[in-house]
Amino acid sequence: MTPPPPTTPDDERHPSAGSGIRETLAGRHLLVTGVTGFLGKVLVAFLLDRVPELGRIIVVVRGRGRQDPNARLRRILATSPAFRPLRERHGDGLPGWIDARLEVVAGDVAEPLLGLDPSTRRRLRGSLDAVVHVAGLTDFDPDPRQALRTNVLGTQHAADAAAELAGGRLLHVSTAFVVGRAEGLVPETLTPGRAPTGATFDVEEELADLAALCRRHELPSARLREARARAAALGWPNVYTYTKALAEHRLAVRRDLDPVIARPTIVECARHFPLPGWVEGINTSAPILWLLSGWLRALPSADRIHFDVVPVDDVVRGLVSLLAAQLREEAPRVAHLGTSASNPLRFDRALDLTGLAARRLVDAPERRGAARLARAVMRRLDAVPRPYDRASYGLPLVRRVARGLRRTLDELEPQEILPPAWYRRVGADLEARRKAWARECRDIDRLIGRVEEILRAYRPFTHDHDWVFRTDAVRALTDRLSPEDAATFGFRVDDLDWRSYWLDVQFPGVARWSWPLLEGRRAPVDPEPDWFRASSETRRTPAPPSRRLPGEAAE
Amino acid sequence: MASHRQGAAFLRVEGVLVRRPGWAAAAWLAGNAQEVGERLARVGNVLASLPFQNGPLGDARLAARVTWMGLRGMSEDRLVVLGEEYAERFLIPNLTDSGRRLLSAARGRGLRPVLVGTGIEAVLRPLATHLGVPDLLANRLELRDGRVTGRLLDPVLAGAALVDGARRLAEELDVDLAGSAGYGATGDDGLLLGAVGLPCAVRPDRRLRQVARDLAWPVVEE
User: Which residues of B touch A503 (CB under 8 A)?
Assistant: First the structure.
């Protein structure tokens, strides 16, 4: 395998040494995967909004159901809050403005070369400056078959596309938690074939074994159980971090690539862009905050460990800085994008802030329907950290009680207990109540089961391990930016005021955009603009985003 | 020669603007500590200061110190957020009509309003912000590693120290005390009112009423 050629006609057209970010990106063509996901949306919207000098962004989109890729992206542009700033700026002129800058190509990261057809590849070859691979499965424990296809093979396909079409320049979005159980101060390094336990392993053999177990087991639960065991044996806490790590290890040994690996930490609500508080889907903190705003008050957590939350727009700024550096051939190989090294938020503080934010929620108008006593009690109970064994002691007991009650209610026969005259008077009502209470007990049982699963999945991150992710690489890039560029593209999380962010941005954000999904409802979308309604394209009702929690197993 | 410096209007929060004592805020904050199990002990700590608030054991500075010790260990986040909540729920809705009138009248006379309180900054600053008054003289709790130590920072503003604080602030703001007004409600406010050129007793307690009578200070009853 030969390295990419050192100079190309592109370098002559785009002299970028010592240039600012806009100058570096001016006229460049990028292929981006993952635009239908949370981070991908914000990245593309940000590039379009802040770097209008960019040449062209080509997004790889898979059709969904009967919705073709173009229609799917058009709906996103029309109604996703990620693109609200662009809609507000360009109004009815947005479609024309977008068409000059954004192109949709049909594809699928799970397919070789991203599923791009040969004519598309011919057209893009030689004109692409970089592939930005954002697509990935972010569930903690997805079906290993899907994780293998998307997280591992998807990355391979993006890398192949970069090698063939973009001179080997690939910006790959991974996760900081590929470090696995090796906690402490985490450097920005990658040692292929070295597991978090310190053991060496053969990446290709490991992948072959993973693929074999996926073929061997028909039941997803069986696949997941064995994949979790494999991951744990090597030091990864779940299938997500395991498969993202395998993808990185494979990238690192390729000689036809110039990859830059960005490792964001826990990506959460936007600080400013596209709008404060916006988040999509069910991210890491949403289930925890949701649980802690209800009756769960003790969270199994080690209070002094770091909760490395980073706003999505800060991640995007970091990605753009890395991209520009890559095009200038100045980029680091690996870069964390997180807050723990420079502006740490510890878990005890996050819980305290959550309790304070939840107090406001109790008094919110939409909650006033709840019983006064319930509200008064909930306002006075704050979330507290507890050791794992103490935190969960209440749940199994409540679950046992709920199951016992349900059994009793199911077996209860009012007709056999009550005198006939009484049964004639109240029997029907009692039967109805008996069934309703039994259903409620069943719902409580299921809810607690879900809560226990969430707590189990989160345990490595809230209780068992503590990581501080160094961010020297992206901070060094920021330090070299001009003041103007730093203001727009700098990775500056030192100025993140956690109290203000948590109370005014993060908590309200997840409550508005994520909790509806946890509660079986849809997240709000923006109203369709006139230009979209007037469009002659067939519109399909989009499938709702996944309601599976990060810690819940695939079905 | 007449001073051309602006005068100020020193308004006591406790007693003039609101009728809640300062220790009530401390008790409420203590009762809303994060750990439910600690709340009773913390509130008890605050209540232990009551004997020193007035009467034969009255020692304003000691009372202030004991009052706020009950918040030891509370996070700065909790202090700030609950301070705002306390002001929003209990102070702002219960601003006295006379207090509002006096503030408005002071502004009308070109006096620079200054709120003076023996409570803490975290509770009184939101009140001051609501009233549009940037200048506040209040106690501050010591913080270490993001948590309250339970100590009030020196000087503890109570009794005579309150007057010293007012004098220092007046110097900083380049305010003429002789041309300034003062509004107080309790005997402890007598020193503050005596330091300004335009004192006024507002719904005074027995001690301050006697002083006002003796020195012919105006008295506002409602």
Answer: 81
